[in-house]
Design goal:
Helix content: 10-25%
Strand content: 35-45%
CATH architecture of the largest domain: Roll
Oligomer: single chain
Distance between the termini: 27 Å
Structural class: alpha+beta
Number of strands: 11
Largest sheet: 6 strands, antiparallel
CATH superfamily of the largest domain: Hotdog Thioesterase
Number of domains: 2
Length: 233
């Protein structure tokens, strides 16, 4: 089954459901199962995006553990799996009580031993993809030296899944009802830039439950370069 295919599976109620995925569907790549708690929902009664990201983090740790890279194993070897970049796209909302299935797959190892993982969070009832993420990790020691990933993980890279790689979405400031925001986290003493993040937001009127445009003057253009991270070499 190639990327972008449909898979007939069963939801938690035992009913058949078609799931559309960016990657080949295989039980091996299921890295998360759970459900939305009511306290995780915001004023729109949808699961807040911070909890989407938390589940992706859990899925990543589970996937790496399958290749001998659990937190305890890494600690014993004095190594750390360090996130270098993450691109997240939200497609559909999740409400309280909804079951979630997470799938993750390694898709590439680039320059300086940077590993790219791809993830999906799927509505366990409808089969809809609610979130996709592409993350890049490096395996480093306390001195910052990069180490190669285990051969078993490299051999597991799915060439067909790499064709479904998420593209970086450039940001060009506010446009219509979508607002792009850049964030920069800097070291207080030296001013050295530690993290940059580009996000896209939609603001809602809670009463009408419709997206609204921000008034003029609240946005300004941002640089195309800063909003478009370079591709993994």
């Amino acid at each position: 089954m190639g990327n972008g295919s449909l898979c007939l599976t069963r939801n938690l109620a035992g009913n058949p459901v078609w799931i559309a995925t960016l990657m080949d569907v295989h039980e091996r790549w299921i890295t998360y199962r759970g459900a939305v708690d009511a306290w995780e929902c915001d004023q729109m009664q949808h699961m807040n995006i911070q909890h989407f990201a938390r589940r992706i983090g859990m899925a990543e740790r589970y996937l790496l553990a399958q290749f001998g890279l659990s937190s305890s194993a890494l600690h014993g070897r004095q190594l750390h799996a360090v996130a270098r970049r993450e691109h997240i796209a939200f497609a559909k909302e999740l409400r309280a009580g909804c079951p979630i299935v997470g799938r993750s797959v390694p898709v590439a190892v680039g320059g300086d031993h940077q590993l790219r993982l791809q993830h999906e969070l799927i509505n366990g009832i409808s089969g809809d993809i609610c979130m996709t993420a592409c993350s890049e990790y490096a395996l480093v020691d306390s001195g910052g030296v990069h180490h190669p990933w285990p051969e078993a993980l490299v051999q597991a890279i799915d060439a067909s899944a790499s064709q479904a790689e998420l593209s970086w979405r450039p940001s060009a400031g506010g446009s219509g009802k979508i607002v792009h925001i850049e964030h920069h986290l800097q070291e207080a003493v030296t001013g050295r830039e530690l993290v940059t993040m580009a996000t896209a937001h939609v603001f809602f009127d809670v009463a009408s439950r419709k997206a609204i445009a921000l008034r003029d003057g609240l946005t300004r253009p941002v640089s195309e370069t800063a909003a478009s991270p370079p591709a993994l070499s």
